[in-house]
Design goal:
Two copies of one chain form a homodimer. Chain A is about 80% helix and about 0% strand. By secondary structure, chain A is an all-alpha fold. In chain A, helix 6 (about 155-160) runs antiparallel to helix 8 (about 190-220).
Chain lengths: ~240, ~240
């Protein structure tokens, strides 16, 4: 799954294996979180309560993966004293797993709200838009994990750019729900459940973007957090010309 | 500000100074974020627009502090190859600054909402409860930074426990706002601004608790994320008996 060519330049075969194992574990944790998000969205958009409950029940697996990976990173730092790109890789892993764990929490939030909304008439607005936003952030998460697996900075910037579309969709849903609440007070509790779900999805987009920023940091040694996308793309282009 | 006795056991005076400098910088970043939160709360509860705008304008300072501290931590990891408690300290710093930066983002959210609510009648409910929640999370943030400065795990557990009260206050505000929206549709936009502010304050409580968990991790070498508070307190007591 992980492109090991990037990480196998050490004399110690064991060290290579340790790094490859960490990366494969990050990908496995990412796969778990992707499954949680997919299940939460099916619970929300199709009223599938079995999947909704499965998301809530699987939270501990993601938490355990985060704690284990954290410990493996500390072990590598203490034992191997990595430098240069290996050190940046470990830093990227430490930060990525925090975001993955929080994406799992957001998926759990969506699943809990979905369990409130089981009797919902899903033809009603804005469920189609929620489905579209869900698709968008799933796509972003998959793209971020793919960019991470291949440590592909260009792909990472492309995925980060998709957050603009996710934010636009989220704003549209918010406007619609606020209008719905003002038209009909009975709609308020339902609208609030959907608002929290939409917010959770929007945050998953933000955190997928964070992961992309760590990939750019790994590849180019540049911290691009708090940098605009245009600036990020420009710096990558400058690096390529060097 | 930082209790250097805990970090001055190295033969290299320069290394000691590097660690002390990092900790002092974390405290300075924490002080900045505390000021942002205090200003955001004055903007919200007293309609002080000058302070509200100051929070929005000072966001870049907190972001810059995070990037610089991240780089200093990487420098120490690469150059000094810390082990044992020094390594745990650097890990705690790396994680703490991420939470501090996000607390700054939440304070900015509160300030932006406050700028929407300038004409608000602040005698109306739930502004008194918002003030109480604001006081609670300011107290938590100050306590978390204090526990961090002294690396005091018992204090950290005490502060983490306060998150239960913050969550209780937040739930009360939510119930009240949902009822207000159902009583009077005209209240919806105002209520939504207060809802986002309340949510941001609640998240500041969560993130202050995260910082407390990193302190416990530093002192006891135990990862207490995803551990209940009762479990956390029990493990500390067990450690003391050893």
């Amino acid at each position: 799954m992980v492109d090991e060519k990037r990480f196998t330049q050490h004399i110690s075969r064991q060290y290579n294996e340790e790094l490859a194992r960490i990366l494969n574990r990050v990908m496995r944790m990412g796969g778990l979180v992707e499954q949680q998000l997919a299940d939460a969205l099916l619970a929300l958009t199709q009223g599938d309560s079995v999947r909704g409950e499965r998301v809530v029940a699987s939270d501990y697996e993601v938490n355990a993966a985060e704690v284990e990976l954290d410990e493996e990173c500390i072990y590598i730092l203490a034992r191997r004293q990595p430098a240069a790109s290996d050190l940046r890789l470990i830093m990227a892993v430490i930060k990525t797993i925090t975001d993955l764990e929080r994406i799992g929490d957001e998926a759990e939030r969506v699943a809990s709200m979905a369990l409130h909304l089981l009797d919902e008439d899903r033809r009603r607005s804005p469920m189609a838009q929620m489905q579209a936003l869900g698709r968008q952030v799933r796509h972003m998460l998959a793209g971020a994990l793919d960019a991470f697996a291949r440590m592909d900075a260009e792909k990472a910037v492309q995925v980060a750019e998709q957050d603009i579309e996710a934010d636009r969709q989220y704003e549209g849903i918010m406007r619609e729900l606020i209008n719905a609440m003002m038209d009909d007070v009975v709609a308020v509790p339902r609208a609030m459940d959907i608002i929290w779900s939409a917010r959770a999805l929007e945050r998953i987009g933000d955190r997928s973007r964070n992961i992309c920023e760590y990939v750019v940091y790994f590849v180019h040694g540049k911290n691009v957090r708090h940098t605009s996308l245009a600036q990020m793309a420009k710096e990558l282009a400058d690096d390529r010309r060097k």
